[in-house]
Amino acid sequence: MRLRGAVPAACLVAILLPGCNPEYANPFPVGGAAKPPPAGAALVFTSGAWSSTPGAGRELYSIGADGSNATRLTFCNSSTEACDTETASLDPEGKKVAMTRARANVDGVSLVYNDLTRGVEADLAPATAIVNGIDWSVSGTVLAYGGRGEGGLEDLFRADTNGANGANLTATPTIRERKPRIDFGTSVVTYERIESGGKAEVYIFVTGTQQARVSPAGPGGALLAGTPYLVGSDADPCFSPDTGSLAFRRLTGIDASGLGTWDIVTARNDGTGSETLATGALYRGAPDWGPGGIVYPEVDVNAGTASLVLIQPDGSGREVLYTQGSRFALSSPRWLRQVAQ
Fold it and tell me: What's the predicted TM-score (pTM) here?
């Protein structure tokens, strides 16, 4: 399978080469410049727990594989600026990051590059692009992201890591393509695809004219308010380290919290072998699959907790790596690439 789309086949490598206290003491330092993950860090994630005020914008953090040494890496929010980072992807060396960024009083979501060692930052795509997902290839050469495209709906895009040579890979005016993730071989992309009036389904991008559906959506159909997802939708897919399978989440119901209830599901790339690994009436966020297992956010509003949970690919060995209050946003854990190799 190969990713070509709007770019010549010869450019393939360039394209993709809580019973608990709901409030917790803030473990993160305030102020200072951006910095790379410290030695021993294995995961990054975004969180609003830097603030004592629920609802604050998320910043980027790292933790060890055992959940230790939570460290704040970015400092966009200040007394004069408010921002929110939903998701981020680091380069293979763990020193640079591409991330989504929403800013107060600015409509939309931009794609931001930050050299964490120097604290130098620049927009690679403007807020009008309304970026909805980002992935930095293991090869270190290309970024894949979702954003506003043909017909005002989301398409898949690629760009060099400096933002140059951007290309719309899908350009479909009636279909929403969102949240791409690149395989470890830098050759194909998985993403969520939503036809008009339909549920989100997991697909693999092969070429601009060939996409393969991994798994049909689940049962149900009510809309989760404030999202593009109908109950039964499959969202936020990511590859296994061997690229032979995918993990994603499935919307199973709508609850009073407004977050919805979600399962964590895996399937082989051809759609066979689907298994539900985590289920029940809780919110579960976008997963990531690395050598240590599958990690995802889990929110228990009744208990007042938001946690990063780690399970093995067969659903066993559940571990809670990190916990904060549920009124503070927690999202998008990613294994660091050097750990994932």
Answer: 0.90
